[in-house]
Write a structure and sequence with these properties.
Blueprint: E1 6-11, H1 13-30, E2 37-42, H2 46-53, E3 61-68, E4 81-84, E5 94-102, H3 106-117, E6 121-129, E7 142-146, E8 152-153, E9 169-172, H4 174-177
């Protein structure tokens, strides 16, 4: 049913699984003796985080934050809002932020600076990186896939809180969001 709204698949379910396995091996080595706090950014990161952590063979804790700059629609509002803060103590901790996509970079830059100000050492892994959309300077430490500047949904990414449950990442047909 949802597939009818997708113009094309950019990253398949199988590609996501394979890349998550590869990233998990790298992160296992990186964090083998560090007990990081793996910090998912709600809501979009949940599918990627769930897939990724299955492949990290190291001690870790998990927590979540909700930070938004979209407030509905297809473009960032430019205003970053902290909606739900982390519950875990983070001073002097290794934090691995897990994100679904880095587009303008505003939200992630704000979040990284906030956590570093609180005394954490922060690194970032993202499923998708869209460098053409970047407005502020920030780069992930690890990237699943670099994608073109298209409006994508699926595997956690949404349009008006729909399409998150697609098992792949696809380009949403323009007529769906241009009304």
């Amino acid at each position: 049913m949802l597939e009818k709204d997708i113009e094309k698949v950019l990253v398949s379910e199988e590609e996501i699984r394979i890349r998550s396995t590869e990233l998990g091996k790298v992160l296992t080595e990186e964090y083998k003796d560090k007990d990081p706090l793996v910090l998912g950014i709600l809501r979009g990161s949940v599918p990627f985080m769930a897939e990724l952590i299955k492949h990290i063979d190291a001690h870790m804790e998990m927590d979540f934050m909700t930070v938004s700059s979209y407030h509905g629609g297809t473009k960032s509002s430019g205003e970053v809002k902290l909606i739900m803060d982390v519950d875990t103590a983070i001073r002097d901790r290794e934090i691995l932020i897990v994100e679904d996509i880095i587009d303008t970079g505003r939200t992630l830059k704000y979040l990284k600076e906030l956590l570093e100000h609180r005394g954490a050492h922060v690194r970032i892994v993202t499923l998708l990186d869209k460098p053409e959309g970047r407005i502020v300077e920030i780069e992930p430490d690890w990237t699943g896939f670099t994608i073109p500047n298209e409006f994508v949904v699926g595997f956690g990414l949404d349009y008006e809180n729909h399409y998150r449950n697609l098992p792949y990442v696809g380009v949403l047909k323009e007529e769906i969001y241009s009304n």
